[in-house]
C-alpha cells in the first residue's frame, strides 16, 4: 500500500489534468443538441460564449439561444429570452449566424411562442429573404413562410388568392429541397381548400421531378399525379405514373386499386406484387 | 450442553452467514471466470412458445459467438411499461428493450440505427439475402411505426414478427353441427353456420355460442369490418387523390360535415357490427380474452376470434383439431351491403412489430446489434417461426404450417381508415365505450347512433388540441436538431440544407388548427 498509494494519486492527477486540457468545442455543443441533450448544449455554449475569439463567442451565443428554445421545461419567458439574444445577433451582422438568428425570430413568432404572432413571423421571414434570399436559412424558410401565408396570416383572404400569392415565392426557391417543399406545400393547400384539384398538378409534377421527398410522400405524389391525370383525360401520363408506383413501391398497399385503374384505362395492368417481396410463399 | 443451548441461536446465525458468504463468494468467483460479454434484452411476449423460440435462438447464437452470453428478461405485459421505464430512467435498462406503445421521449433512452440498417446482415451469407441491406430484408422495409419514427425521421426499432386477427374454429364441432369440412367462404355462409350453431345449442340445451369473443378481441374484427364496408365512403372522402385516407383525415372530414352517423354507408356498417354481436358470446364486452379462449377450449364456442399472437397458445391447449380463416366480409354481390363496398379486400400492408430498440447507454452496442442481426437473419427468423408459430418478419422465410394460416392478405383494396379510430385516444374511446348501446340487451343501430351523435365532435376536438400541441412541439424540437446538424457540417463545405420537420409534419399543425376552428356541430 505504501508504494501503490502515491502511484494511484499521480495517475488520478494526470487524468484530471488531461480532462481539463481537453477543452469543449462548439461541435460538442451542437452534438449535444443534435442528440436531444439541450441542457448539456446550453452549458457548453454558455462556457464558449465567454471565449476571447469573437466568432466562437458569437456562434456560441447563437447555439445557446437555440438550446434555450428546447431546454426543458420550456416556457414563454425562456423563449422570449432566446428571442432577445437572436435579435441582438440579427442586429449585429449579416453573416451566417446573423441570418440564422433572423430565421429563428420568424420561427419563434410562428411556432415557439405558445400564442403565435403570425404578423411578426411574416415580417421576420420577409426580412430574412430580403437580407439574403439565397442563404441556406432563407431557402429553408420559403416553404414555412408559404404555410404561414396559406393557413394563418389572413384568414379572411379567399383561399384562391392565398395560393396565387404563395406561387410568387416559387422563383425565389433555388435549392432543389426548397423548390420541392414549396411545390408540395402549395399542392397540399389546393387539396385542403378543396380548390379545383387540377390546380395542384403542375406543382406535383415539379415536386416529383425534383424528388427531394421521403418515401411515403413520394408514393403519394406518384398516385396524385396519376389520379389527376386520369381525371383530366391524360391517360398516357396516368398510366406512366401508376406504373411508376407499382415499380418503385412494390409493397405499397394501393397496388390492387392502381391495377384496377390501369385495367379501366385499358392499359397494362402490371404484374401482381412480387409475393416473395411481401414475405409470402 | 448449557453453553450450546445458550448460544444456539448465535451458532445458527453464524452458520447462515458463512453459507451465505460462501454462496456469494462462489458466485462472484464464477462471474469473474466468465469472460464472456453479457447482453440482456427484455420483452413481454409470454404467449405460447415465444420464450422457447427466443431461448433456442440464444443457444444457437452463443454457439456461433462463444464470447457473448445473452440473457432474456421476460416480463408480463401488465407491468412491462412501468418496469422498463423505471429501468431506463434508473440507468439499469437492458441493452435491448422491446418497444411498447406510448413511450415518451424515446430518443432520450434509445439510439437510432439508421447507419446500421443500410449495411448487409452478415448472418445472411449463403442465403438469397446475402449482400442485401438489413433494412430491405424486413418484409415492410422497416417502414412500420415501431422501426421508423416519423416525427424524428429516424429508424429505431428492429422488428421480429407481424400479426393479424383470424377466426379459429373447432374442426370436429363444426363438422358435427353443420356437416361442413371447411370454414364458411362468404358472409352469407358465415351467417348460415352461426344460425346452425344456435339451433343446435337450443335443441340440445347447450351453452354454446357460434363465435367466442371478448372485450380484448372484438376491436380487431370491428376495425377490419368497418374499413371493408366503408370503402366507397373512403373514396368519396379522398380529396387529396392519394387512394388512401387516414383515420385522422376521416375525423377531419367528420368535423367538416362530409360524413356523419346518418350517412347510409355508416348505418350499413353499424348494422353489420350489430350482426357480429348477435352471433358472439353474450356479454362479451365484459369478458376478457382468457374467458373467450376458455370458452373455445371447453367447447362452449365453435369459433373464436383471436389475434394470431394468441392462436399459438390455442395450439397447445386444444384437445381437438383447429383451423383458422379470415372473417368473410360482404362483397359487392351481397344483397344488403354490396352497394357500399368494393373489394377484394386487403388486410393492409404487412407492418411488422415486436421491435427491439438499442439502449442509448449500452456498454455493448456492437454485441447487441450483432444479436439483433442474427435474430432477424434467415436462420434466426426460421427458428423463430418454427418454434413460436408466429409470423417471420424476414423476407423469404416461410412461416410454420400453423402460422401460414395467419399470413396477412396484402393483395386487395385497403383505404386505410376504419372510421372507428378517428383521432385516437378520446374519440376512439368515446366511440368504443358506447358500443353497449349497439350490442347490449335492448341495443341496436338506432340506439348507438343516438348515443354517440352528440359527443363525437367534442371528443375529436379534445384529441386535436393535444395533437396540435404535440405537432407544434415536434416542429420546435426538430428546428433545433436541424440547426445542430447544419452547424456540424464541415465548415469548408457547408451543407446548403436546413432539414426542418417535413412539410407534412409542419402542415399538420395548421390542419389541426383549421379543424378546431370549424364551428361545433349543433
Strand residue percentage of chain A? under 5%
Give the termini separation of chain B.
93 Å
Low-confidence stretches of chain B: none
Structural class of chain A: mainly alpha
Shape of chain B: globular
Describe this structure in words.
The complex is a heterodimer of chains A (about 280) and B (about 525). Chain A has about 280 residues and is mainly α. Chain A is about 70% helix and about 0% strand. Chain A contains 14 helices and no strands. In chain A, helix 6 (about 95-110) packs antiparallel against helix 7. The relative contact order of chain A is 0.05. With about 525 residues, chain B is α/β, with parallel strands linked by helices. Chain B has 21 helices and eleven strands. In chain B, a hairpin with a 4-residue loop joins strand 4 (about 150) and strand 5. Chain B has a five-stranded mixed beta sheet with strand order 2-1-3-11-6, with helices on one face. Chain B is globular. Chain B starts with a helix and ends in a 6-residue tail after the last helix. Chains A and B meet through helix 2, helix 4, helix 6, helix 8 and helix 10 of A and helix 20 and helix 21 of B.
What can be said about this structure in brief?
The complex is a heterodimer of chains A (281) and B (522). With 281 residues, chain A is mainly α.
SSE topology:
The complex is a heterodimer of chains A (281) and B (522).
Chain A: H1 4-21, H2 26-34, H3 38-48, H4 54-70, H5 76-91, H6 96-112, H7 118-132, H8 136-151, H9 159-167, H10 176-192, H11 201-210, H12 215-231, H13 235-248, H14 255-265
Helix pairs in contact in A: 2-3, 2-4, 3-4, 4-5, 4-6, 5-6, 6-7, 6-8, 7-8, 8-9, 8-10, 9-10, 10-11, 11-12, 12-13, 13-14
Chain B: H1 2-6, H2 8-33, E1 37-43, H3 50-64, E2 68-74, H4 77-89, E3 96-98, H5 106-109, H6 114-117, E4 148-149, E5 154-155, E6 157-158, E7 165-170, H7 171-178, H8 187-203, E8 209-212, H9 218-229, H10 231-236, H11 247-255, H12 264-278, H13 289-297, E9 301-307, H14 308-317, E10 322-325, E11 356-358, H15 365-375, H16 378-388, H17 425-433, H18 436-439, H19 445-452, H20 456-488, H21 503-516
Parallel strand pairs in B: 1-2, 1-3, 8-9
Antiparallel strand pairs in B: 3-11, 4-5, 6-11, 7-9, 7-10
Helix pairs in contact in B: 3-16, 9-12, 17-20, 20-21
